[in-house]
Amino acid sequence: MTTVLGAGYRPEPAAEAVDRPALRRCVVNVDEFANSYWGSRALLTHAPDLPAPYDDLFSLPAADELLSRRGLRTPFLRIAKNGVVVGDSQFTGPGGVGADIPDQVRDDKVAALFADGHTVVLQALHRTWPPLVDFATQLSADAGHPVQINSYLTPPESRGFSAHYDVHDVFVLQVAGEKHWTVHEPVHPNPLRNQPWTDHSTAVAAAARDKAPVVDDVLRPGDALYVPRGFLHSAKALGGVSAHLTVGLHTLTRYLLVQELTNLAANEPDLRTALPLGFDPTDPAQLDQLLPHLKQLLINHLTAATAADLTPALRRRTWSTTRPEPIPPLAHAAATKSLTASTTVRRRANLRYHLTPGNPTTLQLSDRAITFPESTAQALTHLLDGQDHKVGDLPTLTPADQLTLVRRLLTEAVLITPTSQAETPLSQARPAREQP
């Protein structure tokens, strides 16, 4: 299949968003995956069982374009061999006249390292390669967890990293070549982000050496492998150059809720009182005298806490981890300026928000709250449903108020015009759910 550089992944319309189109490119049965594999079991799915290969998302020519023509800088690139990461100075330098920044990727140095058997890791492709920007936007909406995407380019018969585990779940999508993967059960199940594999390096090495793997197979183009966080894995390229996408889902955990519940304890006056004068917190005997009362205060706090208490903190913490659909600034400004009653608009895909009708009506976003007159509540609900709407069709508002409201929402980057998006290669992903 011929790959067109920059060709975008086009998710399905909002009405079918419940089908999770990006996730369905990674697994055969979404419900079975959710119930039987998510967070607990590795899953290898071969290309014939999946909807399509992944060369619309990425390719070897795409990698060459990024490495040679896009002016990448660190940390968008990492290079390693046999588990040893190469220093940035070995593959970066200034970019010549008008681009003297010293940490730009040097394609000639990358070529030499790759020829010497080093693996090249293109990092954060969900920010630098348009089809993967779109795919990550849709997958984050499908899965409900933030998404990052890296690509691993490995020379023939080479291994970039030894057995290790990640602190996020991963889909491995094989793009080109063949790679032999070995996956083992965890030695430290469900690790948090501050519990890296290096904390258990001895156990990891022993398990990879002595225990039977749960996956021991070759990935070929179009294959997908799901590796839950904590599962040990290593891979080796076979006879040709291998390229795969590592799609990381930064799992939101129950511990996150515990952390925020505990943070709410700062609102309890009794839990903010000073420790006794002269108290030594390193003395077990003194702690024994204090802990029973402290535990009871904390239990009382946790028992009284409600979901309504917790959601504002969770919004602040989680909404900022996922970017909404990109907007083209120049086309967006032009569309805002030329707004008319016949203009079609829609909410940006994957925009986290919460609308509270009232006087005033409040639209809570990840970084700010916007207030509107109470009379706009019905029109706002209409506009935020993820569907396309003509400005002149908005309910309960006069023509002048329709234009005023939509212009405000365009200026705040809440809405976009599909025509301005059509001028870019980016997709029209439209998850159509209000976030809690």
Automatic annotation (TrEMBL):
One Pfam family of this chain: JmjC_2
Record-given protein name: JmjC domain-containing protein
Cofactor (UniProt): Fe(2+)
Organism from which the protein derives: Kribbella sandramycini
Keywords associated with the record: Iron, Metal-binding
Span of domain JmjC: 118-266
PANTHER family: BIFUNCTIONAL LYSINE-SPECIFIC DEMETHYLASE AND HISTIDYL-HYDROXYLASE, MINA53 MYC INDUCED NUCLEAR ANTIGEN
GO MF term set: histone H3K36 demethylase activity; histone H3K4 demethylase activity; metal ion binding
